Automatic annotation (TrEMBL):
UniProt-listed Enzyme Commission number(s): 3.4.21.89
Subcellular localization: Membrane
Protein's gene: lepB
Keyword Cell cycle recorded: no
Source organism: Albidovulum litorale
Name of the protein this chain belongs to: Signal peptidase I
Molecular function terms from GO: signal peptidase activity
Length: 259
């Protein structure tokens, strides 16, 4: 092999290494890509939405790095999240990344009664938001089947859920979905400890969140160190099994703000 050819191979290797290093720094310090794999945040986020998580929003912990490799104790440059933020966090026991809405701040009391959220002893207002409709068919790469308030309905039929608009005490309004009367529609009163947060999915009857303790398969109240970042904007969305199925792209969701 000639010297010129060897030099070309070395330069190619250097270019690849530099590109990987830059990508790693970008992912660690600034933005992390995140695909929505489940329906727990419908209809705010749909299966197949692709977004970048703003990792600068709340500061950095060891979970900010891939494989939890950052040698950080606690959080660096910590900033408090706002109630109503849509947050990506690391599950405290199974190592998965979850995305939910921040409902309870440190010191809050949180309860759900008859499907209505109560914060600090007061019901959170809900207004009628009509219905959310989708086709009952397998969704996303995991081929999850949506749950419907009008079940039983067959594949290809219209799947309907009741929608409400919930307005949190700081004025943040967002839609929530109701499928059925379920066990998490009525909870004990939870008091959020200092340095921890209470999360819920917008698809209230189909969400693994803080209403259920970690010990019995939920999320429980989450210490601040597990926060990864804030979801601000959907960059791309595909309703199909693969992002390469261009005929399933949802162009109306490209660059859509997360509210």
């Amino acid at each position: 092999m000639s010297g010129t050819a060897k030099d070309g191979i070395v330069e190619t290797i250097k270019t690849v290494v530099y590109a990987l290093l830059i990508a790693g720094v970008f992912r660690t310090l600034f933005y992390q890509p995140f695909w929505i794999p489940s329906g727990s945040m419908k209809d705010t986020l749909l299966i197949g939405d692709f977004l970048f998580v703003n990792k600068m929003a709340y500061g950095y912990s060891r979970y900010s790095c891939p494989f939890s490799a950052c040698p950080i104790s606690g959080r660096l440059w910590s900033a408090e999240p706002d109630r109503g933020d849509v947050v990506v966090f690391r599950h405290p026991t199974n190592g998965s990344d979850f995305i939910k809405r921040l409902i309870g701040l440190p010191g809050d009391t949180v309860q759900v009664k008859g499907g209505v959220l109560w914060l600090n002893g007061q019901p959170v207002p809900q207004e009628d938001g009509g219905t959310f409709e989708e086709v009952k068919a397998p969704q996303g790469s995991q081929r999850n089947m949506p749950q419907c308030a009008n079940d039983p309905v067959g594949q290809g039929a219209v799947c309907v859920k009741e929608r409400k608009i919930e307005t949190l005490p700081n004025g943040v309004s967002h839609s929530i979905l109701n499928i059925r009367d379920s066990g998490v529609d009525n909870t004990p009163i939870y008091t959020v400890p200092e340095g921890q947060y209470f999360f819920m999915g917008d698809n209230r009857d189909n969400s693994q969140d803080s209403r259920v303790p970690v010990a019995v398969g939920g999320v429980g109240m989450l210490p601040a160190e597990y926060l990864i970042g804030r979801a601000d904007r959907i960059m791309f969305s595909s309703a199909g099994k693969s992002l390469f199925f261009f005929w399933t792209w949802r162009s109306d969701r490209f660059f859509k703000a997360v509210e």
